[in-house]
Amino acid sequence: MEIELVTIGTELVLGFTVDTNGAFAGQRLAEVGVRLARRTSVRDDPAEIRAAVAEGLTRGRLVVTTGGLGPTRDDMTKKVVAALFDAPLELQEPIWDDLVARFAKLGRPISPTNRTQAEVPRGAQVLRNRRGTAPGLWLAGAPGEVILLPGVPYEMRGLLVEEVIPRLVGRGSAGAAIVSAMVRTTGLPESAVGERVGPLEAELAPLSVAYLPGYDGVDLRLTAWGLPPAEARARLAAATDRLRAVFPGHMYGTGDDDLAAVLLAECRRRRLTLAVAESCTGGLVGGRIAAVPGASDVFLGGVIAYANGVKEGALDVPAALLAEHGAVSEPVVRAMAEGALRRTGADGAVAITGVAGPTGGTDQKPLGTVWFAFAVGGRVETVRVGLPGSRHDVQARATQAALHGLWRRVTALG
After folding, report:
1. Are 185 and 209 in contact (CB under 8 A)?
2. How far apart are CA 129 and CA 411, in angstroms?
3. Structural domains of the chain, count
4. What distances in angstroms separate CA 256 from CA 93, 181, 221, 265, 414, one per listed residue?
5. Which residues contact 137 (CB under 8 A, 6 or more apart)?
6. Residue 104: band (very low, low, confident or very high) from pLDDT cuts 50, 70, 90
7. Is residue 89 located within the same domain as residue 27?
8. 124-135: per-residue pLDDT in tens?
9. In whole angstroms, what is the distance from residue 179 CA to residue 228 CA?
10. Are residues 13 and 87 in the same domain?
């Protein structure tokens, strides 16, 4: 079965809000064999909403909308769709009573404008919203079928999973599952990943491979189309193992695995502690590590040594090194890593210093120049790289590179 999704909201069209609802719906529907044939975003405009829904119904018999079910003037989806189906809105007292009770439980007065959320198109099926005040609606008639869901992501997702998908499956609208698996790599450009995977694509068939580059590296999405679920899972597992052999030192996980969490797990297994010394990344590496629950048994802390005086005072970097070589240099980053070990007593550390831009570059040290020092296993190794992009890009890529360098060296300890 194929359906269309219309996401409604001027903020989506203007780009102020990212349409995460569309991505979630596509993934969850595919898991039960319902293909999302088209996604359309429109403004909070009655004519645009009506046109998008009506056009979707001419291509198929089922359209899902998100957004526009709230109590404010820009929430008009329900009125527009009700008019399209010639189904007048009718107040349902049980829904209103439930709203009143919900607001009272929260100790908040209910506004008369909330009464609009208790209005239901005649003949529509109400989908209970356990997380918010706008119920979902399923309206069927001559034009086809439209499922109306709220735009608030956690409300929409709950209704889709708990109310919509079970009904689709229950009436036989779902087909063979479309199952995907994610393989996460880092430290290689997309072209290099493609060179390694390309010769294997025939071997991996009938699975498809999609390349998803980002700051953290290149993710590979493997997808099994229309296979029985057990066979799909088996093929995806075998393909993941095959790719693991192709990317030693670069494939760090699957699914939603985060490199910082993988690094912490490796350190925990070896009973190692870590520290960081950061200049151009300004604490981003430490932040990534500390964001992982339970990090405190591995991560001892670090120093954000942005100014040279802090490098001298907090990390014992000799003033003579800074004067002779500059802050962005191999001798200074080495001294920063050694100072982090000495000051924290950690078993391993990473230090980062660089030119993130957009100013400060020179012929000898152009924008994007970053030095790393990895102090692991009694050795200090230094690496210089040139990272492309804006200040944010350089900082994000340097953060991932620092975690990657630590992970590779920790795993190499055996």
Report:
1. no
2. 47
3. 3
4. 43, 10, 12, 15, 25
5. 69, 78, 120, 121, 124, 125, 126, 127, 147, 148
6. confident
7. yes
8. 999 988 888 889
9. 10
10. yes
Tell me which of 141, 170, 199 is where a domain ends.
170
Q: Do 311 and 392 sit in the same domain of this protein?
A: yes
Q: Are 305 and 278 in contact (CB under 8 A)?
A: yes
Cα separation, 17 vs 43, whole angstroms: 12
The contacts of residue 58 (CB under 8 Å, 6+ apart) are none
C-alpha–C-alpha distance, residues 82 and 273, integer Å: 61
Parent domain of 301: 259-411
In single-letter form, the type of residue at position 406 comes to L
Are 73 and 91 contained in the same domain?
A: yes
From CA 232, how far away is CA 179, in angstroms rounded?
7
Are 24 and 166 contained in the same domain?
Answer: yes
**In terms of DSSP bridges, do strands 299-304 and 348-354 run parallel, antiparallel, or are they unpaired?**
unpaired
Q: What is the pLDDT of residue 99?
A: 87
Residue 13 shares a structural domain with residue 159: yes
Residue 232 scores a pLDDT above 70:
yes
Contact in structure between 367 and 328 (CB atoms under 8 Å): no
Which CA distances in Å does 289 have to 10, 140, 280, 298, 311?
37, 50, 17, 9, 21
Which pTM value belongs to this model? 0.74
Q: Under a CB-based contact definition with an 8 Å cutoff, are residues 144 and 158 in contact?
A: no
The model's pLDDT over 349-384, given as tens digits with 9 standing for 90+, comes to 999 999 999 999 999 999 999 999 999 999 999 999
Radius of gyration of the chain (CA): 27
Mean pLDDT for the stretch of residues 153-182: 85
C-alpha span between 328 and 143 (Å, rounded): 66
